[in-house]
Write a structure and sequence with these properties.
- The chain has one domain.
- The protein has 3 helices and 4 strands.
- α1 runs antiparallel to α2.
- The N and C termini lie far apart (108 Å).
Length: 166
């Protein structure tokens, strides 16, 4: 019996129940699909952020390595130049350090390449790049070659050049 008092056949009742069940299941599947898509979107967004972070860390590491290599290359050039100036005595070495590495050649100071340099009138030159101490006593300039003949201040990189043993 329906609300008007009419008799309803069992087929109509069963079909209405099935239609309601089909609609309910379709709505449930749609909600489940939306929830799945939302969680997948969230996962992909998180994955994207992690990839961006990883790429930024890789780039930072790469830039740090480049900076370190550049500093080592510049430091090597300065050390080679100091080695070239060493036979000419303390004066050229002090001038070079004063012009290129430190502001005051007789006081410990930090130059443009993070060198801590100390040049003493006794002929001892100390270069301390990044906290390490590197010291060398300069020889006498009694029988040294002339500056004009021997001085070559190039700082080009040559991988075949042997390492300096300071």
């Amino acid at each position: 019996v329906d609300e008007n008092g009419n008799l309803i056949s069992s087929r109509v009742v069963v079909s209405k129940i099935l239609e309601a069940q089909i609609a309910k299941n379709a709505a449930e599947r749609a909600r489940a699909r939306e929830a799945t898509l939302g969680s997948e979107r969230e996962y992909l967004n998180r994955l994207s952020m992690e990839i961006e972070l990883h790429n930024a860390m890789d780039r930072s590491s790469q830039l740090e390595k480049q900076r370190s290599l550049l500093e080592a290359w510049e430091r090597d050039g300065h050390i080679r130049n100091l080695k070239k100036l060493q036979p000419f005595g303390v004066e050229p070495v002090q001038d070079y350090i004063q012009r290129n590495l430190a502001t005051d050649p007789y006081a410990t100071s930090t130059g443009p390449l993070n060198y801590t340099s100390t040049v003493r009138p006794s002929g001892t030159v100390q270069l301390a790049p990044f906290g390490a101490t590197l010291s060398k006593t300069l020889g006498s300039s009694a029988s040294q070659p002339t500056v004009a003949n021997k001085l070559n201040m190039s700082i080009g990189y040559d991988p075949r050049r042997p390492k300096l043993d300071w």
